[in-house]
Write a structure and sequence with these properties.
Largest sheet: 4 strands, antiparallel
Shape: flat
Keywords: Membrane, Transmembrane, Transmembrane helix
Distance between the termini: 31 Å
Number of strands: 25
Helix content: 25-40%
C-alpha cells in the first residue's frame, strides 16, 4: 500500500513538471491575483465613502448654529460676523493672438490666430489677448450676506462638550432656555436648549419679494429680504437685525412647529453633495474656442447625489450672478448694466466705446507697438485692439454663460439625533477607528496591488519561458534563465505574498471592533439620510470584514500552492528524479 501511495505521489510530481501544468499554475495565480486586487479595491472604496459621511455628520453637530442673518452693502461683514460662503470663478484663459500688418519673424510672415501666440508670433510683434484673474464671487442680489453664530454647537469634539438636551417635561437646565415652537417637544427630538444669555438660534430663512412684505419699513424697490427664525423667550419679533437702511432680518418663532437650528450654509450650482464633488466653484478657468470668439465657462459637473436636507432660499441664473460681480470690478467702474454691452466690441463695434477713445472701460486689452496697425480685413486683430477690459468681462457674461445653470442659496439645519440613542460622543468615538480602518484598508489596497502585479508579471515570464523559450527582458539564457525565474517564483514570490498579510490582518481586527456598533445600536436615531449613512455603515462594515476574509483566503491559496509543490519536491522529487537531469519546473 505504501509503495502504491509513493508511486501515486511520484506520478503527481512528474505531472507537476509538465509544461501544461506549469502554465495552468500560472493562469490560476494570475486569476487569484486579479480577484484579490478587485476585492481590496471594493473594500477600500466602500470605507472611503462612509468615513466621509460620518465626518460630515460630526462636523454638522460641531458647528455653532446661526443666531443672526443679515445683508449689507459693505465690502466686508461687521466685526464678529461670518460671510456666507463665496463661489470662485477661476478667471479667463489668455485668448487669441493679434498680429499687426507685416508681422515677420525668421523670414516668415505671421498672421493673427484664435489660439495663443507662439514664440514666432511674439517675436513678430503680435500681442496676446491677456487672461482675466479669478474672482471670489461673494455677493447675492448685490448684497453681502453676513451671519453670526452666538450659540453652542450640539457637540464640541475639541472640548468633548455636549450641549444640554431637553429633558422631560420639555424643560432645560438652569441657565438655558427651551427653544422650539408649538409641537416641538422632547419626544420628537426637535426641541433644543440654548444658553439664556445667547438666545435661541435661527431655524429657517425665507426670501420675501416686495409684494410679500407684510411688515412696514421694507423699501419698495428692493426684493432681497430674508425671514429668519429665533427668539429667547418664544415671543414674536418684527425685525431681528438691521445693517444700514435697507437690510433686515425678520423673526417669528411660531412659523415652524418642528425645526432644529440652522447650522450649514452654502452657495453653489447645486446643494452640497452626499456623494460626488461639491458644486460651489467653477472647475477650471473659462476657455476660448480655437476657431472663433466664443468662450466656455466650466461650472462643476453634477452631484452623484445632492443632499436633500439643504433648503433652497433663493436662486439666480449664472448670467445674473456673473453680471453682479463683473460690474463690481474696477475696470467696469461707472458702467451700468444698461450700456455694458456697448463696450463688448465682439458684439458691438460702436466707435464711441472703442477702448482707445472711451473714457470708461478700464483701458485696452491689447496695444500694438507704436506705428503698427491691423490689416483692415483681419477681424481678430481689429476687434482686439478696440476691446476694453470691461468689455472682455461682458463677453464672458454674454458668450460663456448657460441659461440652464442657476446658482442656489441654501441652508441646512442641525442633523436630527434622537435623545434615546447613543450620544454624540459615542458616535464621535468611532470616527478615529473608522479613519484608521480606512487608512489600513488603503495601505492594504496599495500593497496588495503592487505585490499582485509583481506576482502576475513573474507568472507571465514563466508562461513565456515555457511556450517561447528564452525571455528577451530576463538576464541569462537556457537553464540559467529558467533557474533565475524559478527563484523569483519559488523564494521571492513567497516573501512578497507574505508582506500583504500585515495590513490585511490589521484591517480584519479593526473592522470587528466597530461593526457591531453601527449594526445594532443606531437604528431609528436620525433623519432619513443620516440614518442611511449609519445603516450603510452597519451593512458595509460586516461586508468589508467578509471581503477581507475572502482576500485572506485567496492570498492563502496563492501562498499554499507553491509551498505544497516545494514540499512535494523535497519529499519525492529526488527519488522520482534519479538519473533525470531535468530540473523541476517553476513553482508559483
Amino acid at each position: 500500500m505504501a509503495k502504491e501511495e509513493e508511486g501515486a505521489l511520484a506520478k503527481l510530481m512528474k505531472f507537476a513538471k509538465t509544461k501544461e501544468f506549469v502554465i495552468f499554475k500560472c493562469v490560476v495565480t494570475i486569476v487569484l491575483s486579479i480577484v484579490s486586487i478587485v476585492l481590496a479595491s471594493e473594500a477600500f472604496n466602500a470605507l472611503d465613502a462612509v468615513v466621509g459621511d460620518i465626518t460630515g455628520i460630526l462636523d454638522n453637530w460641531g458647528t455653532p448654529p446661526v443666531t443672526e442673518f443679515t445683508l449689507t452693502n459693505a465690502t466686508a461683514c461687521p466685526s464678529g460676523w461670518e460671510q456666507y460662503p463665496d463661489v470662485k470663478w477661476r478667471g479667463l484663459e489668455a485668448g487669441a493672438c493679434a498680429c499687426p500688418s507685416g508681422a515677420t519673424s525668421g523670414g516668415q510672415t505671421w498672421t493673427s490666430s484664435y489660439t495663443s501666440c507662439n514664440s514666432n508670433q511674439t517675436s513678430a510683434g503680435c500681442q496676446q489677448d491677456p487672461a482675466l484673474s479669478s474672482i471670489n464671487m461673494k455677493y447675492w442680489r448685490n448684497r453681502l450676506i453676513c451671519l453670526r453664530r452666538e450659540s453652542e454647537a450640539a457637540y464640541n469634539r475639541d472640548d468633548d462638550y455636549i450641549r444640554p438636551r431637553v429633558s422631560e417635561p420639555d424643560s432645560c437646565p438652569s441657565g438655558y432656555v427651551f427653544c422650539g415652537g408649538p409641537g416641538t417637544t422632547y419626544a420628537n427630538g426637535f426641541a433644543h436648549c440654548a444658553r439664556t444669555d445667547l438666545g435661541c438660534p435661527l431655524t429657517s430663512y425665507d426670501i420675501l419679494k416686495p409684494s410679500d412684505a407684510a411688515y412696514s419699513g421694507f423699501p419698495s424697490n428692493y426684493g432681497g429680504f430674508f425671514d429668519g427664525y429665533g427668539s429667547t423667550d418664544n415671543s414674536e419679533y418684527d425685525m431681528l437685525g438691521r445693517v444700514g437702511t435697507d437690510s433686515y432680518v425678520e423673526s417669528s418663532v411660531t412659523r415652524f412647529d418642528e425645526a432644529l437650528p440652522v447650522v450649514d450654509v452654502a452657495i453653489g450650482f447645486a446643494p452640497p453633495c452626499i456623494t460626488g464633488p461639491n458644486q460651489e466653484n467653477y472647475d477650471s478657468a473659462t476657455s476660448w474656442s480655437s476657431s472663433n470668439n466664443d468662450v466656455t465657462n466650466d461650472p462643476p459637473s453634477s452631484c452623484n447625489e445632492a443632499d436633500p436636507r439643504y433648503v433652497e432660499i433663493d436662486s439666480l441664473s449664472e448670467a445674473e450672478f456673473m453680471r453682479e460681480h463683473f460690474l463690481r470690478e474696477s475696470a467696469c467702474a461707472g458702467i451700468s448694466a444698461n450700456n455694458w454691452a456697448n463696450y463688448d466690441v465682439y458684439s458691438s463695434a460702436g466707435s464711441s466705446f472703442d477702448c482707445r477713445s472711451a473714457s470708461l472701460g478700464g483701458g485696452c486689452l491689447v496695444s500694438l507697438s507704436s506705428g503698427r496697425s491691423c490689416t483692415s480685413t483681419d477681424s481678430i486683430c481689429t476687434t482686439r485692439v478696440r476691446q476694453s477690459r470691461c468689455g472682455q468681462y461682458h463677453h464672458v457674461y454674454d458668450s460663456g454663460t448657460d441659461a440652464s445653470e442657476r446658482l442656489k442659496l441654501t441652508y441646512r439645519r442641525q442633523l436630527l439625533w434622537q435623545d434615546d440613542c447613543p450620544s454624540y460622543r459615542d458616535v464621535a468615538d468611532k470616527e478615529d477607528p473608522l479613519t484608521d480602518l480606512r487608512d489600513a484598508q488603503g495601505a492594504l489596497f496599495t500593497i496588495n496591488t503592487i505585490t499582485n502585479v509583481i506576482v502576475m508579471i513573474v507568472a507571465c515570464l514563466v508562461i513565456y519561458n515555457q511556450v517561447m523559450g528564452d525571455v528577451p527582458c530576463v538576464p541569462y539564457e537556457g537553464e540559467k534563465e529558467k533557474k533565475f525565474i524559478e527563484d523569483l517564483q519559488g523564494k521571492y514570490s513567497v516573501v512578497i505574498k507574505l508582506i500583504k498579510f500585515i495590513p490585511l490582518i490589521i484591517a480584519i481586527v479593526a473592522v470587528g471592533k466597530i461593526a457591531r456598533f453601527f449594526a445594532n445600536k443606531v437604528e431609528g436615531c436620525g433623519d432619513q439620510w443620516t440614518q442611511d449613512a449609519m445603516d450603510y455603515l452597519g451593512r458595509e462594515l460586516p461586508a468589508v470584514e467578509q471581503t477581507n476574509i475572502q482576500i485572506l483566503i485567496v492570498d492563502l491559496l496563492q501562498l499554499m500552492l507553491p509551498l505544497i509543490l516545494i514540499i512535494f519536491k523535497k519529499l519525492f522529487g529526488k527519488k522520482e528524479g534519479e538519473g533525470d537531469e531535468k530540473k523541476p519546473a517553476d513553482e508559483v
